[in-house]
Amino acid sequence: QELCKYFKMLVVAMPIAGQVFAWSSYLILTKLLGMEAALNTKFAFIHEHELGYVFLAVWLVGYTRAVIVTNANAARAPARVDRPDQHVYKVMAASGPLKDAPYVMMAGTGPQGRFNRAQRGVINTDEALPLLVPAVVLT
Questions:
Q1: 81-106: burial string, b at 16+ Cβ within 10 Å, e else
Q2: φ, ψ for residue 50 (rounded to 5)?
Q3: Model confidence over 20-67: pLDDT tens digits?
Q4: What is the rounded CA–CA span in Å between residue 88 and residue 36?
Q5: What is the rounded CA–CA span in Å between residue 42 and residue 134?
Q6: Looking at the DSSP assignment, which residues form a beta bridge with residue 106?
Q7: Rg from Cα positions in the chain
C-alpha cells in the first residue's frame, strides 16, 4: 500500500507538476520577461551540437534514483523506522542474556531487513553517482 502511494506520486503527480512548472516558467520567461531570443539561442545550441542525449541521460539517472528512494520510503513505514533514522540494528548474541560480547548488526529479515536493504540501495547509489553521471554523459 505504501509502495503504491509513493509510485503514484512519482509516476503521476510529479511528472504533471513538472510539466506545469516547466511550461509556466517558459511562458513567463519568454512572454513576460522577454527572454525568448536567449532561450531560442540555447535550444539551438543544444540541437546543433546534439546534446539532447545529455539531458535525457541525466534525467534518467535522476528518475532512477527517485524510484530507488521511493522503494526505501515505502519500506520505512512497515519497518516502523521514523526519520531521521537510516537503519535498523539488532543485537546478536550466541546465547544467554546477551552473552558476554554481543554483536550489533543490521537487521536482515522481516520488514526491517527489507527497509535496510532498500536504504542501502539508496546510499550505494548516492555514493556511485559522482562517477556514474559523467560516465553516462560521456559514453
A1: beeeeeebebeeeeeeeeeeeeeeee
A2: 50, 50
A3: 999 999 999 999 999 999 999 999 999 999 999 999 999 899 889 988
A4: 52
A5: 21
A6: 89
A7: 22
Length of the chain: 139
pTM value?
A: 0.70
Whether 36 and 30 have beta carbons less than 8 Å apart is answered as: yes
> Helices 52-76 and 36-48, interaxial angle, to 10°?
100
pLDDT digits (tens, 9 = 90+) for 76-120: 888 888 877 788 877 776 676 666 666 677 887 888 888 889 999
Q: How far apart are CA 101 and CA 19, in angstroms?
A: 56
Grid cell, residue 104, equals: 550489533
Residues 7/70, Cβ–Cβ less than 8 Å: yes
Q: Which residue has the cell 542525449?
A: 53
Point out which residues pair with 89 in neighbouring strands.
Answer: 106
